[in-house]
Amino acid sequence: MSTTALSEEAKARILNPELLSLVMPAAEAAAQIKSGMVLCTSGFGTGYPKAIPTSLAETKHATELTLINGAARGDRHMGALASAGILKKFCGFMYNEDARNICNAGALQFQDVHLGQLMTKVKNGVFGKVDFAIVECCKIKEDGSIVPTLSAGTTEAAIALADKVLLEVNLAVPAEVEGFHDFGVPSTKLVGSPAERYGVPYIKLDPKKIAGIVITNLPDTDLYYPDIAPIYNQIAGNVVKVLDGELAAGRLQPEFTFQSGMGVVANCVMVGLMNKNFKNLKMYTEVLSDQALYAVKEGIISEATTTALDITPLFFDDVFQNLDFYKEHMVLRPCDFTNGAPQIMAENLVAMNTAWEADIYGNVNSSHAMGSYMINGLGGSNDFARNAKLSIFTTPSTAKHGNISCIVPMVTHIDSTEHDVDVLVTEWGYADLRDKSPKERVNDVIDHCAHPDYREALHAYYDGAVAQCGACQTPHDLKNAFSWHVRYSETGSMKQE
Amino acid sequence: MSTTALSEEAKARILNPELLSLVMPAAEAAAQIKSGMVLCTSGFGTGYPKAIPTSLAETKHATELTLINGAARGDRHMGALASAGILKKFCGFMYNEDARNICNAGALQFQDVHLGQLMTKVKNGVFGKVDFAIVECCKIKEDGSIVPTLSAGTTEAAIALADKVLLEVNLAVPAEVEGFHDFGVPSTKLVGSPAERYGVPYIKLDPKKIAGIVITNLPDTDLYYPDIAPIYNQIAGNVVKVLDGELAAGRLQPEFTFQSGMGVVANCVMVGLMNKNFKNLKMYTEVLSDQALYAVKEGIISEATTTALDITPLFFDDVFQNLDFYKEHMVLRPCDFTNGAPQIMAENLVAMNTAWEADIYGNVNSSHAMGSYMINGLGGSNDFARNAKLSIFTTPSTAKHGNISCIVPMVTHIDSTEHDVDVLVTEWGYADLRDKSPKERVNDVIDHCAHPDYREALHAYYDGAVAQCGACQTPHDLKNAFSWHVRYSETGSMKQE
Questions:
Q1: Does the predicted interface ipTM exceed a cut of 0.90?
Q2: Does chain B have fewer CB atoms within 10 Å around its N or its C terminus?
Q3: More confident residue, A2 or A481
């Protein structure tokens, strides 16, 4: 593209004049990608490249691609690539609906990994050489370094590991975002306080690696939150009860540090914390939602470290209008750090994550329906649950209009084992599993968490298991452990006639 | 006890004369323990108190006790307390045969936790106040500080958290063991090299906390190794093949760092490493066996950090005769550190642990028979597997004379999820799961790891699952997922007629 055709606005985002010659249409950038290549893309909720993936999906000239990404679920990225049928494999957080359906249809191999370990695996050569990093940024500096948009995610590692880098400079994100991130920090560095900075607010990039620059103006619009049903507020209320109990017992300080997973329950918990007048909380977390940003504005959260803003268009405007405020209170760091064990352990963190189903002994399934179908990846849930001081999992007690009990005799897939689940919460109450053997947990899980419609049947399963194998460590009746799931598949309900 | 009755040898072990008045018979020390108390004991394989637990078991004056300990499985400790029926609850590593049987009979509540997190949970108040620490040592210093015997385990934290401390000074262990340990190091400190020291070789102990001192002369004799069947050497040979492959691919350096779990396969691997002329390896591990000490002597292992010597009487003599040599090459540190994520992550460790069964997708059961009966606790296996650079699990392909396949359609209990298992090894070969989706793993696990007698049936299970639910993320036929286990329970064999 001739540089004269570039808008002044675009030129102002590329501070190295020599790089202007690399500006090209998305199709020309995409054309460099060949079949069978391994791609690492930026983004994590927001901040993913949109023009090049869309172009790849349109031309379909390159097939059998491997895509590695943190948690960028957008339709113009993950959805487009998967729907085009050009992906052989995806490794990262599975959330996009199209991609999930294609995966469950067997046309896309998906490898689910703990997000905190994803780029370590890439670095260790598990997926072979990374051919291209495709990265969205808002600014390219004089030396080629880039300022990403509003995520950090896997981008720094992707750029370091890739042979070549394709950049999308997104004019919809102001260049003044610079200062939001903290990069170039040794991996073993512990952070003293969530908003402290130790490195530089940009990612070092050797200009020789840049194979193309595409100018875009594409706001992040993929995220929306579902309506909040009363049940979610009830769950959130019970989470707050758990926290109140910890405070009363002196096991938690009033200005505690926490992580909160994505989703509507997490957002309701945030509102619950506000209503209870918690103040000066700190977050080390994977993503920050609208509600979390609102909590920052209200002083409920004083500081936050996150790897991405997982926010709706409404809050993008707010962030762009109050950049200095948000930069003062929060930092975007690589997800190797946010989800890494050392800082989580050092913080005595309260972790709050979502289960799809849990069993009477406290094992949690975060990812699979009926043990077989991918719902969404496990993401960073176990990164936090495994290393937190207090690991809370939430789930509604039922799904599918009461036809599925989310508390089951045995979960059909395990993402967080009973060792990583401290407290289980539903709209009915909570079960504190911490000081209990598996058998000691059963009554609390059933009577405090399960839906009343299923309690009797759950007790009957346990009693039957004990009758069969004695009061051994973890009594199970293997003939019937999945009978509820089989019944659901056959009759449309887990309920017994 | 009058101090004149004390032998000169005993007096030489207690350097603070004021403490001599606290020397008492084991029964008098044990008498201070009351029903319902929470006890933390020292030891981890070796180094546990023997006289006071034996006395408690004899008098049975205190019942409903909670015992917290790292991995001290000895009959004079765990076995005696459990067999006496005075334990309500145990939290730590379950390995003692009597205790396991009592647990599976329902008369002892056992809570299995990741050993690396055990004392963090105690510190967080999960089990309430610790009434007594009961600790074996070889020396009490002028200020009350103690030099433990040949383990570190949970002892430092137990002493810090307990209201009162009972000490057993074991004359069978020379006082010159002093210098083997490294205590008083901040929990966030990373170690530069396994044998480097940063703290002090003793545990600080306020003499006011000491409630009694018992003099013993009781060598650690509980450990023995079973005979090595050819199959274990075949498994070890396949592990060495995996390591050779990593070296050849440049993913491992010739002087790599590793962890090795306990057990006969681990010991055979050590011999395999010696036979292949590996040199200057480093270990960060939970326990060191006879074979590991031999490897240190031979220069195969140049340095090791461990939390305990898990050795037989033969090697105790060798250690006592060569204390300076072993102190130079190894350090005993608390198991919070040895099993803690930060150092394991920093080391790019190769972790080698044992599975009881694994499934076609790579999930590992380390602890339960038929999903119900405790075999042994998960110990530190997942501490290492979860954070290692390369996580290897080994198992014989069959058990019970071929009537149990250790490779099954679905494991009945999960301690390490498919996300934490990189390579699965049996006597038949190995399956590298690292770059594979669940479905992509199936053929390798079946054809490289399962016993030939079960391969056809495993393929049939998978094909049946796909026929039923399509080639979704993790195809399972929930009606038949445990049919092999049920068949074993009913017929004594997993084999189909």
A1: yes
A2: C
A3: A481
